[in-house]
Amino acid sequence: MREREQDVLTVTGLVQHLTRVIEEDPGLSRVWVQGEISNFKHHGRGHMYFTLKDDQTRIRAVMFAGNNRRLRFMPKDGDDVLIRGRVGVFERDGQTQLYVTHMQPNGVGELYVAFQQLKEKLNEEGLFSPTLKKGLPFFPRCVGVVTSAHGAAVRDIITTIRRRSRGVDILLYPVPVQGPEAPLEIAQALDQLNQAGEVDVIIVGRGGGSLEELWAFNEEVVARSIHQSRIPVVSAVGHETDTTIADFVADVRAATPTAAAEMIVPRLEELQIGLKAVQERLTKGMKQCLTDGRVRLNRSLDRPVLRRPATGLEQAEQRLDILTGDLVRAAREGFAPVRSRLESRTYRLKGHHPAFRVPRLKERLVRLQRQSKVGMTRLLREHRRRWQGRVEHLDALSPLKVMSRGYSLLYRYDGQELIKSVEQVQAGDLVRIRLSDGRLKCQVWGMEEDSNGKSR
Fold first, then answer.
1. Maximum C-alpha span of the chain
2. Which reaction does it catalyse (predicted)?
3. Residues 179 and 256 both lie in one domain
4. Of 175, 288, 369, 421, which cross-links 185 as Cys (Cβ 3.0–4.6 Å)?
5. How far is the CA of 106 from the CAs of 49, 238, 244, in angstroms?
6. 271 phi and psi angles, rounded to 5 deg
7. Is there a single domain that holds both residue 101 and residue 158?
8. Distance from C-alpha of 138 to C-alpha of 170, rounded to nearest angstrom
9. Could you give phi then psi for residue 52, rounded to 5 degrees?
């Protein structure tokens, strides 16, 4: 039940969905439809509303003013027409209708549709672009003519060219201009004229006829040969009211073959008249130019600089002297401080030059060596005096010195113990006596103490 509620659309939603579906269908964006007009109404604002029907159904159609202003006929009820447009939805009424962009009376049939389709195709490829159009030569040496050898067109072209100028050659390339073989032979003729390179411009065309008779110039092969031609091509097909694909692709379209010849070949008398007029204008211009030049020359000769050229030179020489003096003075004033600083630094630099410093340093070295020698001698003498004093002092304190005056030292015989008292020995002990000039080995026989309690 819930899924069913979600699937329910409003009328507006349904119509909008239908609109999107139709607009997104590429097959409905451009359709050709044949039918009969009914209920035709030409609105005051220029829009056309009508119904297009056949024997089974009908559909509403609208052709806006921007599109119907190019119509060559006024539609009415009962007209059998062939229209081109797109299918859309008028959402207010929820009604499907045709939006018509092109309309023509039905009767031209499939050829007209093929013409329009090929025209649109080549236009989209850019074959009709004005930027591709080549200019016609001013006075062609030779004109190539691609047309029937037995038609009135070739006679008109040759007669017109001969009448306007007998100095222009004509190279006729006869081809059939109608029938199934005509398109291919016309295209081959254009290609061969381009390969030969003998003509300066090509006229391709024929005299008037029905649409079927002119159809060879609506074939794609002819259009592409004209487009690929490096020689300018003039299309001259039928009369002024006839329009073919060749007219759109060609570099220039002429209303008739005679108009094409007049367009390409200028009249000799007109050229002579024009040349004479140009010659007169050139002569007049040259005279005027000479006159103006002479006036400017005289005016220039009257100028003081040309009458007395040395005057300006003298003034310039004087100004040059003044400026030279100013320059020298300014240079001196500007260089004086610099020269002073340079001389000062040069003098200081010379004072540090090795050639000047080395002798002074050598003298200083000799003086220092002499002073150090004297100082070392004095220092050695002082240390020697001190050393001798201390040696004498030590000699005075030496036990040997005392023993030389009759004193001796008594040691135990088997050791270094100095015996200083009679109490340290016993009778019969062996002792050693150190004299100033030798040693004695003795044995104690007895001991006597001094009267002051000390043994002797």
1. 195
2. Exonucleolytic cleavage in either 5'- to 3'- or 3'- to 5'-direction to yield nucleoside 5'-phosphates
3. yes
4. 175
5. 19, 23, 19
6. -65, -40
7. no
8. 16
9. -105, 125
More confident residue, 314 or 265: 265
> Residue 286 is encoded by which pair of tokens?
């040259």
Does one domain contain both 89 and 116? no
* 220 and 241 co-located in one domain: yes
Task: Tell me how far apart the alpha carbons of residues 219 and 245 are, in angstroms, rounded to a whole number.
Answer: 7
Q: Are residues 163 and 15 in the same domain?
A: no
With 0-12 / 13-18 / 19 or more C-beta atoms within 10 angstroms meaning exposed / middle / buried, residue 123 is middle
Report which residue type is found at 125: E
Assess contact for 211 and 108: CB atoms under 8 A: yes
d(CA 187, CA 192) in angstroms, rounded, equals: 9
Per the CB < 8 A criterion, the answer to whether 84 and 32 are in contact is: yes
Q: What is the DSSP secondary structure assignment for residue 49, as one 8-state letter?
A: E
Q: Which among 28, 81, 86 is positioned nearest to 62, based on CA atoms? A: 86
Residue 370: name the closest of 362, 382, 380 by CA: 362
- Whether the pLDDT of residue 377 is over 60: the answer is yes
- The angle subtended at Cα 160 by Cα 159 and Cα 162, nearest 5°, is 65
Tell how strand 409-412 and strand 252-253 pair up.
unpaired
- Look over the chain and give the mean of its residue pLDDT values, rounded to a whole number: 87
298-346 tens-digit pLDDT: 888 887 777 777 777 777 888 888 899 999 989 888 888 888 889 899 8
Domain hosting 161: range is 110-266
Q: Domain with 122 in it: what CATH number?
A: 3.40.50.261
Query: Are 41 and 81 in a shared domain?
Result: yes
Distance CA(234)–CA(246), nearest Å, equals 9
Q: pLDDT tens digits, residue range 227-262? A: 999 999 999 998 877 789 999 999 999 999 999 999
In terms of Cα–Cα distance, which of 302, 283, 303 is closest to 291? 283
Q: Name the amino acid, one letter, at 275.
A: L
Choose among 217, 227, 152: nearest CA to 178.
217
217 and 154 belong to one structural domain: yes
The order of strands in the sheet holding 201-206 is 169-174, 142-147, 201-206, 233-237, 252-253
Domain membership flag for residue 307: no
- The residue type of 84 is R
Spatial contact of 249 and 127, defined as CB atoms under 8 Å apart: yes
Q: Which two tokens stand for residue 256?
A: 């008739």
β-pair partners for 104: 82
Apex CA 185: angle with CA 181 and CA 190, to 5°?
A: 155
Say if pTM beats, i.e. exceeds, 0.85.
no
87 and 145 belong to one structural domain: no
CA 395 to chain centre: 109
Instruction: Please provide the DSSP assignment of 78-134 as one string.
Output: T-EEEEEEEEEEETTTTEEEEEEEEEEETTSTHHHHHHHHHHHHHHHHTTT-GGGPP
